[in-house]
Design a protein that fits this description.
Growth Hormone, Chain: A; mainly alpha; globular; membrane; two-stranded antiparallel sheet
Length: about 475
């Protein structure tokens, strides 16, 4: 669905002008855009790996540093808490100092945090290792929001129209690869307590490499010549004015709430997956496999879907279909996860959940940029990410609080020594108020009263709902009837 003529950020939105015409108009692409994307992707991957590096080996870390399980959980949760206020600041920084200096600053903060948290594992005696671990994680958390939404701005400034979604996908999905790396690398490196310093040192390497490349290889925030007509005509509102426009943009708010909530739910899904499955007798290794398949199929789906959308420009169709299919799979997970011995079904469901849900992340991020013109790319994508981080923190805290301990014997494989958790109470509470593929204003019955992940079912379609005309043009004009 190619856009028609018109001005705006994505002017044209169809295939680029022929090379000869583009050169005549002064449009040019630079090979170093791929280097910029590589640095940003490496930084994103490193930051995500640092986020969850403690979670897969929480029991060994807790015993080594004499910490409680709750303290170890806070080493991951601090990312979501810190990134909420820092995300708003990051939006302003990205639009004020430019993409280059913002990336370099983030790279140094990420490197400093990775080094700071490794200090308690050295030979020197530290009275309070938790303070150093939390301090290092907090420094890294300051970086997360910016590196997640920076690919959208990089794609808009440096890449031609037919490569923007693909570039956004590469930068965004590198965060998922970092999560996958943490889930695979930490258990592999840490078998005993003596391996912990080795693990902490290994995680410094990609952070240091990203810092070195960002400092030495990034020269400009914007290219000398714009890559497309849309980039040439791109002008942004001031920070506060831009936020006001976003909050009054009904289509954008709908997308931000749905997609931001989805980001938070997926964060909660990865954080609580092992705790939910172990109650029914599934091992930690199996839970790790389900999480890995979720990410792998999500990255593969994002690659295929991004290439497709880059050529067809069917943004809204791709996101709507992805949301509906994700909702169905979420309900399936809510039901099957309450049964024992369903390994094949759970593996399939988690794979499909990543394929349908995680694959729309770069598409929705690009759509947020498109339907918010003339607001800057950083503000448009950043506000969505901030909402996602807030939702993630809320999901982890709320759903954990709603679970209760069971005293009766069970087949649980949970090894916290406090008895298995019963998740049924919060399954009922999180029952969806609307059908996953329903629309606002319809009186519908929740899909299932035991929908653990039915909270992930988006109550509204992004940028519209069934029966509403959502037609992208140039720029994407989202009309409401």
């Amino acid at each position: 669905m190619d856009g028609g003529a018109g001005g705006g950020r994505g002017a044209g939105r169809g295939p680029d002008a022929p090379p000869a015409l583009g050169a005549l108009l002064g449009y040019r692409v630079y090979a170093r855009r791929w280097l910029f994307l590589l640095v940003l992707s490496l930084l994103n991957c490193s930051n995500a790996a640092l986020w969850l590096s403690f979670a897969p080996v929480a029991d060994i870390i807790a015993h080594h540093f004499v910490l409680s399980t709750e303290q170890i959980n806070w080493l991951s949760l601090i990312y979501l808490v810190v990134s909420i206020p820092s995300g708003v600041v990051a939006i302003w920084v990205l639009d004020s100092v430019g993409l280059r200096w913002a990336t370099i600053t983030c790279a140094w903060l990420n490197f400093a945090g990775s080094t700071f948290r490794a200090l308690p594992s050295l030979a020197i005696k530290i009275e309070d290792p938790f303070a150093f671990l939390m301090g290092g994680q907090s420094l890294c958390a300051l970086v997360q929001t910016m590196v997640i939404f920076s690919p959208a701005k990089l794609a808009a400034l440096w890449f031609p129209e037919h490569q923007r979604v693909t570039a956004n996908m590469i930068g965004t999905m590198s965060n998922s690869l970092g999560i996958l790396m943490a889930n695979l690398l930490s258990p592999t490196l840490v078998k005993k307590e003596k391996d912990i310093p080795w693990m902490l040192g290994i995680y410094i390497i990609p952070a240091g490499l990203a810092c070195l490349l960002a400092t030495a290889c990034l020269w400009d925030s914007v290219p000398p010549s714009p890559p497309s007509a849309g980039a040439a005509r791109c002008t942004s509102e001031r920070f506060l004015e831009g936020l006001k426009l976003l909050l009054h943009n009904r289509a954008y708010v709908t997308l931000a709430v749905c997609f931001g909530g989805g980001i938070g739910i997926f964060s909660g899904f990865l954080a609580l997956l092992e705790q939910v499955l172990c109650v029914k007798g599934y091992s930690k290794e199996f839970a790790g496999l389900c999480g890995a398949l979720f990410i792998v199929f999500g990255v593969l789906g994002a690659l295929v879907l991004s290439l497709y959308v880059d050529q067809t420009k069917q943004f809204t169709e791709a996101v709507k279909i992805g949301y509906c299919l994700t909702s169905v799979v979420c309900v399936a997970f809510a039901l099957v996860s309450q049964l024992q011995g369903q390994t094949l079904a759970l593996v399939t469901i988690c794979s499909l959940l990543g394929l349908f849900g995680l694959s729309v992340v770069p598409i929705a991020m690009e759509l947020a940029v498109e339907c918010s013109f003339p607001v800057s790319e950083g503000a448009a994508a950043g506000l969505v990410v901030v909402l996602g981080q807030a939702a993630g923190a809320l999901v982890v805290v709320l759903l954990t609080a709603l679970s209760v301990r069971r005293a009766e014997p069970s087949t649980s494989t949970c090894q916290d020594g406090q008895g298995p958790l019963d998740w049924k109470a919060h399954l009922v509470v999180t029952s969806p108020p609307l059908h996953p593929c329903g629309s606002p204003g319809r009186d519908v019955t929740p899909c299932t009263p035991a929908a653990h992940l039915a909270v992930t079912s988006p109550p509204l379609h992004p940028c519209g709902s069934p029966g509403r005309d959502v037609t992208p043009s140039a720029p994407l004009r989202l009309t409401w009837s």
